[in-house]
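quick one, two chains, predict together pls
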Amino acid sequence: MNLQVDFLLDSERRSGSSVSPKFVIRLAAIIVPAVLLGLFMILSTAYQVSKHDRNTVEQEKRQIDPEYRKVINLEKELKEAQSLAAAIQGWKDSRLDAYRFLRGLQRAVPLSVQLTQGVLNEKVEAVESAVGRTAMLQLKGRVGGASPEADVRRLYEALKSEPPFPDLMEQVEVKRFAASEARDEQDIRVFDIECKLKPRLLMAPARPASATK
Amino acid sequence: MPTLSLTKKQIQLLAGGVGGAIAFLVIIQLSVAPMVKTMKDNRASSRALREELDKARKVVGRGVEIQRNLTQTRADIRAFATNMPLPVLGNYLLAREQQIRAVCAPLNISVENVQEFDVLKVAGWNELFKVYRVRVVGRAGVNELARCFHVLQMRNPLLSISAINIVPLEGIPNIHNFSFVVGWLIWADPDQRPSFLEESPSKAP
């Protein structure tokens, strides 16, 4: 049996390594500060570069700024001008072609029908979320002959389907068809027709908030 | 308990190490950390500024096109504005009446009366405009009246007929009593209309 006894105290122990701790400490005392200094210099260089970059961009921005502001102002002026032009164009495009309307009405009335009054009234008002022109046409008339009902029906159909009315009319309604109240007009029928024209917008309706997202 | 006996040199080394560590931490805290923070700020600012700069360059690049569009749009408005009557000493009616009578006379339309109907402010539309309306009363055939509307609307694309009332005359089938309301688009305040309208097109920017 082998018995090994270590008589050395901890403080008396020596390393077996050929590199002494003293040398390691001295080496560390040089390398660590050198590495830290190197890191510091890298950091310092990066700092200077970031500062230089920022200054360069700031200078470029200062140079372009007057031109940029000028173009932004131009853009604002363009938007205002376009809005103005759109408003005028909207007014122009929404007007009723009174010539075409009156000519269409002339063609629509059968020969046996005599109009006793024609009234067109147009308003400019809010149409849902926009502004537009709305109009009502009221026709009063008398009709004689063998088939007064058919003649009024023909007028009604013409107001619904013959040009230019399909583009214009939203609703056509015969409000009254009756015998004339005059004693000497027993075979004469009188009628009232009321037409609601389609609204013509002065400008495009405002988009709902959700649509702008 | 083992006693820790250090030589003087070891104590000096230890003190030097602790001192160095403290100095290192102080340097980090006072110099490196602010430098890193400033560097980060600089980079963030540079990035933001560069984005702004790119955007600005794009906007500036569109400058010529915007200028061209503006010139064209203003020319269009100037052309439209020639159809918007201006008051003469505050009066719109005189010239309008003259215009209507000049159109009606060759068409054999008998105009009995031309009078101011109203000046309409269209709520919810463009604040710069109003509509000046007159009522015309007279006698004519429907053909002549239609032609009158055609001429009026053809001569002025901003003129509109907003009411028509036709009533036949007893015993004269070709002639009717009529009244109609005709409206002109006008500036709400002629003195406050856009300044570019005063400039000649060549002077326009």
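Confidence is low (pLDDT under 50) at residues 209-213 of chain A.
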